[in-house]
Design brief:
Chain lengths: 351, 311, 357
């Protein structure tokens, strides 16, 4: 590589890289403005947030724990979104996976560890994938918009979970609605006790990498993306559009289901009515923030995990309502997309 | 067999139906404009929350519901400008911006509500729009209760839907909206300013959504609580598709949703059914999916340029 | 200053890493930017001077609430209790609304405990697992669980505190069956504090009239005031004339339905007479703080040695009591009030089990 070329490349990198850098501080600055307006000191708030996320090893592992389901879901959704399937139903698919994992973890609890542990994860994937394939089937067979059906199926999954934990699967009738703990043989290993960092985090990173490879480096991924860009052209090119839609939904549903089963097998060990605080919806943002690149999801998942984790401490020590973090998350997304688009247009003008 | 309980049962459900449908209907009719112009706004939930908060806080401080409604409208216009700026001018992905807007709506209303009201120790309820009993008609048995004892914002939907239909199908503006949503390029060549048309369509959408949000506090429940919209923005999105992108269709769809929501509450209240209540709660959502499948024969296509920024 | 600068800088680096990834170039991005950011960061930081007080052993009390503490109901009772501890014991207080996911609970408990909080109130049964896991690591911290009957000598620093809402609700049910034709109960979700309150109501009503119709509706959330109102109206249409809401924020809708439909009703956890002045017959008021106070002061002094869990009920007159609304359209008649006194005495003595199946 000659020197001029290298400088040109560096310049290009620099030019395209400065914008996202500027995006984050701007989001924080705007969030700070709201804090000031509301009578808080933004610096103390942000410092508390930082402390909450990165103060020590434990805090940092908690960030990773929070990021894990977001990475799973985000990486899966990236596939669906690349196929232009607007799966808003990861929340429901998460529940489906969590339910399946709990059922197996409890009722097949006598199986040996080396069978039970993977089985719990696998049924989670299956549960999520099947729940995700319902809208895909309805779209293929009846043309029902997946935006509608996935939203509706979220509610259905949550209510079914509510029924199971208050009814047939409740641990003790009349007590807090939760299932019994799943068999200890199904618990995922944790790394550095007493921290809760578990192997699920590694699986999430691996999944993101695998899905990146699948989407960008294999013919399966190529056809999925082709359907996403233009289904009609894809059909003319001999691609089975319906099969790809089904596949994309199965992958994204499966990933969300896996997130659910990991949450059960590694963190909660049992099922509750509201086991997800909206991971499925955050996952949408996590994926979109990095332009539906599964690899990028590792970072955006981490960012959201850090924001959420930090927000709790911000509330504890700086007394700032943790709902603020939603606002900041929204602003981060907006500034990143705005700068991304700005970059695209300036490039166009230069060319 | 005694018919009276059945009549009361139906009357109770049907009277609730229209009220339950109204906030969803406002948001959905608006969203039709936006989607017909090619802009998908999944941020309706956030827009509705902000509208509800703006409407509530102004109405509460001023003691005037109309001012509250105007504030909600202003917040809707602002939401529309922000959303259009990002999706139309900046050409960012519409789903991204919508998702972000939902978070922003939740965050900002939560923070502001706490700061201004949460620990103020003041009584926080408003005097909402009172039901207007239409003379004579409200005396008709059954129908009177179902149709003629609602408040002004519920009745207004009867104007909204035909008006929206008229604008969309019978005016030049409506034609421009539909053409930029189907063939933006063609619209451009005949001299329609695509982006400006989309700006207007989006602002109509967010304004109506904000009114729908404000309805919850000004004409239904009497105070703002965090997360009061409770998913209605998402239901409205479903209603748009389900109603085939037409205002009358949206009215039908939201009424259908309302009827099943009212039915599930009523069935729970009867209490002697052997169905777990969670299945009843899921009923409106399941029915929506089933009806959507059933409608497959006369399915309407989505606007062709939906979700695609122009140029 | 330096530390903060470093943290801010690192934060920005991480954020930008991800942002750069969103574009095309992932790896080279941070390097290119570092110098400029580092130069900018101090500017943003200057206005603050960290004014942290010198470390001293202070009594610190923390609260984990499952929802906003301004809900005028469940969470607010805990927050006000905490404020009482602040006022009376000079404690430093703090609260956090935890995400409704068990994954979040353990972290929040550890965060407080590791900051040296000696008194942590986890306001709900759902925190039990997390508290039991965390407690052995922080033997100098007491973890209290609301709406819980937990006590286990193996984890002596986790103690359940139950405010038995079924007792006042028994009285409500008793009054309802005496004065009304039928009752509708509207709950948020089916969790023990809600379900037990309703059980109490039903038992109270059945004690008067075994055929008195009482039905329960669950909304499936805590925020939908409109749905709560519709559910309440639905009861009235079905012939009920007594309503009770126990759904956090959404309860507001029930009050509104009472007022509009001019039926009778009750209020829990606070005085809501102004929301439905003619309808509300009795307010069940609770001062959780009064119950917490004695425990907290023992924790502060280091003399707290729990031997069992705590049950608060109508016997603890400072913790929960009933207030009649004299302005109601049909106030509770005097002879019925006499009767109720007897009922309350029997509940307090344990003669009446309000949770009987």
């Amino acid at each position: 590589m000659n020197w001029v070329n290298f400088r040109a490349r560096l310049k290009k990198v620099f030019r395209s890289a400065w914008t996202p850098f500027a995006a984050i501080p701007i989001a924080l600055l705007l969030g700070g403005g709201v804090l000031l307006l509301a009578g808080y000191n933004p610096i103390t708030a942000y410092e508390a947030m930082w402390q909450g996320a990165f103060k020590d090893k434990t805090a940092f592992t908690e960030v990773l724990i929070k990021a894990t389901p977001l990475m799973f879901i985000g990486a899966g959704l990236a596939v669906a979104f690349k196929c232009s399937i607007w799966n808003i139903g990861a929340e429901g698919q998460f529940y489906a996976g969590a339910v399946m994992a709990t059922v197996v973890g409890i009722y097949l609890g006598d199986l040996p560890r080396f069978i039970l542990m993977p089985l719990v994860l696998i049924v989670g994937v299956i549960g999520g994938a099947l729940w995700g394939m319902i809208p895909a089937y309805l779209k293929n067979r009846f043309g029902a918009s997946e935006v509608v059906t996935t939203i509706m199926l979220n509610y259905v999954a949550i209510y079914i979970t509510g029924y199971l934990v208050t009814g047939p699967m409740i641990e003790t009738k009349g007590m807090f609605p939760q299932t019994p703990k799943i068999s200890a043989a199904a618990w995922l290993p944790r790394f550095f006790p007493p921290t809760r960092l578990h192997i699920g985090f590694i699986i999430a990173v691996l999944l993101a990498i695998i899905l990146y490879i699948v989407i960008f480096k294999t013919s399966i991924g190529y056809t999925i993306r082709a359907v996403g860009i233009n289904p009609i052209a894809a059909r003319y090119a001999g691609i089975n559009v319906r099969k790809n839609i089904l596949l994309a939904m199965a992958i994204s549903g499966g990933a969300a289901g896996l997130a659910g089963s990991v949450e059960v097998a590694a963190i909660s060990y049992r099922l509750y009515q509201l086991i997800s605080p909206g991971f499925g919806f955050d996952g949408i943002a996590v994926s979109l923030l990095v332009n539906n690149n599964p690899l990028g999801v590792i970072f955006s998942g981490f960012l959201f995990g850090a924001l959420r984790s930090g927000a709790e401490v911000m509330m504890m020590t700086a007394k700032v309502p943790s709902v603020l973090v939603y606002f900041i998350q929204g602003l981060v997304i907006l500034s990143v997309v705005a700068f991304g688009a700005y970059r695209a247009t300036t490039k166009e003008i230069e060319e | 067999m005694d018919l009276l309980p059945v009549v009361i049962f139906l009357q109770s459900i049907l009277a609730a139906t229209w009220r339950m449908a109204t906030p969803i209907l406002y948001a959905a009719v608006g969203e039709i404009f936006s989607e017909r112009a090619g802009v998908l706004n999944i941020g309706l939930e956030g827009v509705m929350l902000i509208g509800a908060f703006a409407g509530y806080s102004v109405a509460y401080e001023s003691g005037n519901l109309i001012l509250g409604l105007l504030a909600a409208i202003a917040s809707g216009i602002l939401s529309g400008l922000i959303f259009s700026f990002f999706t139309i001018t900046v050409k960012a992905n519409q789903i991204v911006v919508g998702a972000a807007y939902n978070m922003i709506g939740m965050g900002i209303t939560g923070v502001l509500y706490r700061v201004f009201y949460a620990e103020s120790g003041r009584a926080l309820s408003l005097k909402t729009f009172a039901p207007i009993e239409i003379p004579f008609l409200s005396q008709i048995p059954f129908l009177g209760e179902v149709l003629f004892k609602h408040n002004i914002m519920v009745y207004a939907t009867l104007l909204l839907v035909p008006l929206a239909t008229f604008v969309l199908y019978k005016t030049a503006f409506g034609l421009s909206i539909r053409s930029v949503g189907e063939h933006p390029k063609a619209a451009d060549t005949v001299g329609i300013n695509v982006n400006r048309t989309r700006y207007f369509a989006v602002i109509i959408a967010t304004t109506l959504a904000a009114i729908g949000g404000a309805f919850l506090v000004l004409a239904y429940a009497d105070q703002f609580v965090e997360g009061i919209v409770t998913g209605r923005g998402f239901i409205a999105l479903a209603v748009v598709v389900f109603g085939g992108w037409s205002p009358w269709g949206a009215m039908g769809a939201s009424l259908l949703f309302g009827i099943f929501y009212a039915l599930q509450l009523r069935l729970q209240a009867m209490g002697n059914i052997m169905i777990p209540y969670q299945f009843l709660q899921a009923l409106p959502y399941v029915v929506t999916v089933l009806v959507l499948i059933g409608l497959t024969k006369r399915r309407v296509q989505a606007p062709k340029a939906l979700g695609v920024p122009y140029k | 200053m330096k530390r903060r600068l470093l943290t801010l800088f690192a934060f920005i680096t991480i954020l930008s890493l991800l942002a750069a990834c969103g574009g095309q170039q992932a790896t080279e991005a941070p390097k290119a930017e570092e110098p400029t950011k580092a130069a900018e960061a101090p500017k943003a930081e200057e206005p603050t001077k960290a004014a942290e007080p010198a470390a001293e052993v202070k009594f610190k009390a923390g609260l984990l609430a499952p929802g906003p503490v301004n809900d005028g109901g469940w969470n607010q009772t805990a927050y006000e209790g905490l404020k009482k501890i602040e006022a009376e014991l000079g404690a430093e207080i703090s609260y956090v609304e935890t995400e409704q996911s068990p994954a979040a609970f353990e972290k929040a408990l550890r965060d407080y405990a590791s900051q040296g909080y000696q008194f942590i109130l986890a306001h709900g049964n759902e925190y039990t697992d997390a508290a039991v896991t965390v407690a052995p690591d922080y033997p100098n911290t007491f973890f209290f669980l609301s709406s819980s009957r937990f006590f286990d000598p193996k984890v002596p620093n986790v103690v359940g505190l139950n405010t038995d809402s079924s007792q006042p609700c028994y009285v409500f049910g008793y009054v309802a069956a005496k004065m009304g034709k039928g009752a509708g109960l509207i709950g948020g979700m089916e969790i023990p504090p809600i379900a037990e309150a309703f059980t109490g109501f039903i038992n109270g009503a059945k004690a008067v009239n075994p055929d008195f119709p009482v039905k329960v509706t669950y909304l499936g959330n805590w925020t939908d005031t409109a749905a709560a109102k519709e559910a309440a109206i639905s009861y009235v249409d079905g012939g009920a004339d007594v309503l009770l809401g126990n759904a956090d924020f959404a309860t507001q809708g029930v009050f509104q339905a009472m007022a509009e439909k001019k039926v009778m009703g009750f209020s829990m956890f606070g005085d809501n007479t102004d929301k439905a002045p003619e309808s509300i017959l009795i307010n069940y008021l609770s001062d959780y703080g009064e119950g917490l106070l004695e425990i907290a002061s023992q924790v502060k002094d280091g003399t707290f040695k729990p031997t069992s869990n705590y049950e608060f009920g109508l016997k603890d007159e400072k913790v929960m009591w009933l207030v009649y609304n004299e302005k109601a359209a049909t106030p509770v008649p005097a002879d019925l009030r006499k009767e109720i006194e007897g009922v309350i005495a029997k509940i307090a003595s344990g003669e009446i089990n309000t949770l009987a199946k």
